[in-house]
Amino acid sequence: MRTSPLLTDLYELTMLAGYLQEGLSEEPATFDLFFRSNPFEGGYAVFAGLEPALAALEQLRFAEDELAYLKSLNLFRPAFLDYLRTFRFRGTVVAPPEGTVVFANTPLLSVSGTLAEAQFVETLLLNLVNFSTLVATKAARIVHAAGDDASVLEFGLRRAQGPDGGLTVARAACIGGVTSTSNVLAGQTFGLPLRGTHAHSWVMAFPDELAAFRAYADAFPHNCILLIDTYDTLQSGLPHALAVAAELRAQGHELYGVRIDSGDLAYLSREVRQAFDRAGYPAVKIVASNELDEFVIDSIRDEGGCVDIYGVGTRLATCAGRGGGALGGVYKLVECCGLPRLKVTSDMAKATLPGRKRVLRAINPDGGYLQDILALDVDDPLAPGDTVYDPSNPLQHTLLAATATLRDLRTAVMVDGKRTRVAEPLDALTARCREELARLPQGCLRFINPHRYKVSLSPTLNALRNQLIAERSSTI
User: Fold this and answer.
1) Which has the closest alpha carbon to 229: 259, 251, 196, 195?
2) Is residue 145 domain-resident?
3) 207-216, 308-317, 364-373, 391-400: range with lowest mean pLDDT
4) I need a surface site. Which of 76, 322, 342, 455 has the fewest CB within 10 A?
């Protein structure tokens, strides 16, 4: 589906008009998209949103009704509106594959082209990358908490930020490792497995709970999951579910599972598991829901809970939790008119890194990730044993491990406004995320006080930054 170019901030259009008037619109420029701190106070992020971003760039054009609306604002000159009629994105985008683990202050996307086209897509790219990356990261944390013996179902559509947000959540959560969704449109759009049970209202609509369970089992004998906490989980829901399980087996079917949506989920899941095992139904799945996130799931497992599927809605769809809510990605000019550009500010955390860059990942002989190094795109040799520098404190430096190998994290995914490769299937992105997380230092996966993965600057990039800071200071 085409994304309208009007999905932008007004200042992108006013700057575009100004660049055109000042004769700057065709000057070459490069922007970096990055974030300054890892989300959820965690040790990493999972990059997502690239494919929707590339699709939007490839289709970028102004329709006549959109130009008519801009004309009605009485803000822009006719020559600018004529310019927009043939405006396209014909630039280059460099990025890692979706599902890659990424870190604060590391460029995710680098966008090169004319100043006009590279500037104009700022809001669009931030909108498409920020939220997807945030959701994929939250999903990866939740899946890690659930462990290898359980799966996670995404069912946050009713709490998501509108229809588009619901679709974005389902796709990005899949990249982070979630295995299924309740969102039927997402199932159709992305080919995701669908899963669901029934609501408490189903049980309340029948004369009694057992009648409700029997009716649901009759309607869906091959995929019956019963919600057992409408009245009393252990005294009512559990015995009625056991009765229906026996009736289904007598008919040649098996009860798929039961869901618990309230109460002490660790205790209740243990009791329910024991009851079904004693009755000869070890394959019945236990689904838990009710405001779950990585911390709640972690506590359920610590207390011996027996959950096979975690249904996670609100806290995944809204990315709730410490350090959540928004990724805070930014889009900054790093080169213009053939010269590196640097934003200098009294807040060192908001200073930018100049020039077109490579992102190099240092890898141990066993395949584990050591650190990332930012280097200039050209004429910046880097080898194991070199000194590399902390981007937030130039006085801090360390030696790159002599046994490390270096790999470019990013490639050109769009050239001349066209994608360089076909879109990867979602299951490939999920597999990449899983492999990437396994290569991180284990401390990065901690929810509390995670290990700080180092992102460093090459000597050449560090020297360029210091030079530009000194030149800027001398002119103030």
Assistant:
1) 259
2) no
3) 391-400
4) 322
Per the structure, the complete domain to which residue 109 belongs is given by 10-135+324-474
Residue 258, domain member (yes or no): no
Q: What's the CA gap between 293 and 277, in Å, rounded?
A: 27
How many structural domains compose the chain?
1
47-58 average pLDDT score: 98
Chain-centroid distance of CA 157 in Å reads 16
CATH of the domain at 343: 3.20.140.10
Question: Burial letters for 407-434: b for 16+ Cβ neighbours within 10 Å, e otherwise?
Answer: eebbeebbeebeeeeeeeebeebbebbe
- Residue 227 DSSP SS3: strand
Contacts of 427 (CB under 8 A, 6+ apart): none
Rounded CA gap, 176 and 163, in Å?
Answer: 20
Place of tokens 């000597």: 459
pTM for the full predicted model: 0.95
Quick: pLDDT tens for 298-346.
999 999 999 999 999 999 999 998 877 789 899 999 999 999 999 876 6
Distant-in-sequence, close-in-space partners of 220: CB < 8 Å, separation ≥ 6:
none
